[in-house]
Amino acid sequence: MEMEFKELKEAIDQVELVDAHAHNIVSLDSSFPFIGTFSEATGDALSFAPHSLSFKRNLKEIAQLYGTEVSLEAIEKHRQASGLHSFTSKCFKEAGISALLIDDGLKLDKKHDIEWHRDFVPFVGRVLRVETLAEQILDEEIKIVALKTVAAYRSGLDIDTHVTKEAAENGLVEVLQAGKPVRIGNKSLIDYILTLTLEVAERHDLPLQIHTGFGDRDLDLRLANPLHLRTLLEDKRLAKSRIVLLHASYPFSKEASYLSSVYPQVYLDFGLAVPKLSVHGMVSSVKELLDLAPTKKVMFSTDGYASPETYYLGAKKAREVIYLVLRDACASGDLSLMEAIDAAKDIFSRNSIAFYKLNLDVNSFSPQRRISLAPQMKEPDVQEDSSSFVRIIWVDTSGQQRCRAVQANRFNRSVKKNGIGLTHASMGMPSFTDGPAEESKLTGVGEIRLVPDLSTKRTIPWIKQESMVLGDMLLKPGEAWEYCPRETLRRVAKVLKDEFDLVMNAGFENEFYLLKNVVREGKEEYVPFDFGPYCSTSSYDAASPLFHEIVPALESLNITVEQFHAESGKGQFEVSLGHTVASHAADNLVYTREVIRSVARKHGFLATFVPKYDLCDIGSGSHVHLSLSKNGENVFPASDKSSAHGLSSIGEEFMAGVLFHLPSILAVIAPLPNSYDRIQPNTWSGAFQCWGKENREAAIRTASPPGAPEGLVTNFEIKSCDGAANPHLSLAIIMAAGIDGLRRHLQLPEPIDTNPADVAATLKRLPESLSEAVEALEKDQVLHELFGQKLLVAITGVRKAEVEYYSKNPDACKQLIHRY
């Protein structure tokens, strides 16, 4: 029977998880007892915990994970010897969790803040607990994805949604008169707050998590039955609220299943029931949830807390339990095998992505992460001493990566919140000078704040005493500067999401040259590191020591590397990154360039992404692959083989918009005069305004990777983008063009199935110079509207300065290797 369901088991084992409800991890010296990892019991009852079925099972699971004896003492000894960061990395890696939603309202001694957890999970969001809001420190950098109530612990779930304000005020007086510590337990006050919370949540499009069912002894289980919520669910004022019942409502799983089946706003989450129950209890409670509830309304979480082992156990047992439940559903005829696999993906990630409206692409999750990342690749947080620094990085209009560095203690004290000052001129500088281009309309007058985006803060792999973080450009707290590249991408992405409920995903191929410094006739010059051909084994072998540092460094930054090899140019190599949501892809590209340059420098080489290093050799591009997703699903392919091009109508219209505006787009994605020395026929750079199926000479190529259904297109590639382009501005202008295609329902012309150069007479040549591309952009009013007039003035002003300078100083382009 197990062989019959091998495909289901493999799919469940490989799927990456969205953990939709969990709590903070604590320090090793916290007063929270490690034994609490395995039981909800407290006080004297905790002494009996080791005799429960789930305790015995979970203890064995952790001992097996760490390779220790099966005892609390042996496991705790291993934890102390390994260090929190090391065994947390191991737990999360093995769990395969790619997104984490944390309720940090749970009182735990010496708990780490939400930001700390980002070292282990690519995406972390915040769940705001209503009852302890006054006690919580709000960090504007952490995205709030949901609200939560523990009313079940205080006065029960029989919520009176018509309680008066006067009754609530009297309740508040009663609470305050009870003295400190303040604990809200008055039913009228709680009901009033919860009703208002649902109204606020609806206005801000936030769901509400509700604790239901079992918990610790502070809970009256009789009042935690979700059926008590009927009055709230029947209130027409709150009908559009989105509610999730936590913990499988155990032991009221059947009741929760019923509510989810009859109320469209009710969803279910089975965290805590898995893994705290026995195997029979876990399986039966999840089966009861699925008796009536749609599989589209059931979600996974670990309800992890205090120790990373709780996350590991929640994830591991959830995979096992969901397999058993869906296997039995197939065996009994409720589901087909493919329906079961689809249900598993829904339960573990897609439902949460849609319900919490997370800006994630489930297809970008990398299941290989669980076996490819070595624990030692994660470094501890930078300690606050005089030798530890933080770099705040930005990329300017001309695509140059710049940074300011501050000491870690100053960063944590003030820069973390207030940023550092930066002149307006910083976004008006061309590649040849550190002063603003006149036509950019940006000068040295005026200052903005470069404020770190803490979600991007990473330990620098090659300098253990330093961190790096990407900066947002703000006029003041909460008000973005209209020239900020990262904000521009976010703004355009919001248009795509709001108008079409779509998310654009991207993956970059990074081509670069490795050069070495030599002295010839008394003069220093840079020459290629190697002279091997495309995909040369000897060239790769020579560069292998660098890649043995580059790849682990990127993976330690949560950047997926798909492949790397020698390219066609002399000393040229390529590193291809996995695709992810556009904003993350742009951030990843910035860090990738930093890693490659720094590792090369460490080995005595210069890595350059300049578009055309040698006019007699092939150029370096930054080809970008793009797709669209809705609720985590790729919507680019056609739904069946009836489509002429294997594209969905959405995919075709978006791509048609990009193709239509490509001459204008070039001014952003190919930003130097040197870029157009690269974009030539017969160089795989896309010199003509056309597209083709798997045609690597076309400017736009549709791709069907291995595993995709025959004839269906999963993404498209733009060949013209290069390594001097600002990645955030590049993706923003591409996205803006695609939005225009969707709005106007543009259609693609027929694909070119031959070398475009052979039919050049029938095709339009893309701009052959930067000045032509700038002219096209200035005339493109559609992109002006979506991109922002002032920003486009700055971009075109900088580009015009580039054209003028390099036309007068053609040899100066040789110095570009030091800037890109």
Structural class: alpha/beta
Overall 3D geometry?
globular
Low-confidence residue ranges: 134-140, 364-384
Question: Which range best describes the helical content: under 10%, 10-25%, 25-40%, 40-55%, 55-70% or over 70%?
Answer: 25-40%
Tell me the strand percentage band. 15-25%
Say how many strands there are: 27
The helix tally amounts to 24
Radius of gyration: 28 Å
Give a short account of the largest sheet: 11 strands, mixed
Provide mean pLDDT, rounded. 88
End-to-end separation in angstroms reads 58 Å
Written description of the protein model:
The protein is of the alpha/beta class and 820 residues long. Strands 17, 18, 19, 20, 21, 22, 23, 24, 25, 26 and 27 form an 11-stranded mixed sheet that branches. An 8-stranded parallel sheet has the order 1-2-3-4-5-6-7-9. Helix 6 (165-177) crosses helix 7. GO terms for molecular function: glutamine synthetase activity; hydrolase activity. InterPro entries: Amidohydro-rel (IPR006680), Gln_synt_N_sf (IPR036651), Gln_synth/guanido_kin_cat_dom (IPR014746), Gln_synth_cat_dom (IPR008146), Metal_Hydrolase (IPR032466). Residues 485-820 form the GS catalytic domain. It comes from Brassica cretica (Mustard). This is GS catalytic domain-containing protein.
